[in-house]
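Structure (tokenized):
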């Protein structure tokens, strides 16, 4: 059985499960807000199977983009 890897640039929402271990970058909040992520909050590393987190400072949902597969 073959499994395809997600393409670099694929996007995921808070609460979804990471399909691969990788580096993910903040894209935007899922709803309008005045909250701006710090440079440390703009990139996360998740293991396969971990859930995408909300924005750490305001706890709102965000969209993450796969930047690099590890």
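Design, position by position:
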């Amino acid at each position: 059985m073959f499994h395809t890897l997600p393409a670099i640039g694929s996007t995921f929402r808070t609460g979804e499960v990471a399909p691969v271990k990788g580096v993910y970058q903040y894209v935007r909040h899922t709803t309008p807000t005045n909250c701006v992520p710090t440079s440390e909050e703009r990139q996360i590393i998740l293991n396969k199977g971990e859930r995408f987190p909300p924005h750490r400072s305001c706890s709102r949902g965000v969209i993450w983009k796969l930047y690099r597969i590890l």
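Reviewer-requested clarification: The chain has one domain: 11-69. Residues 11-69 form one domain.
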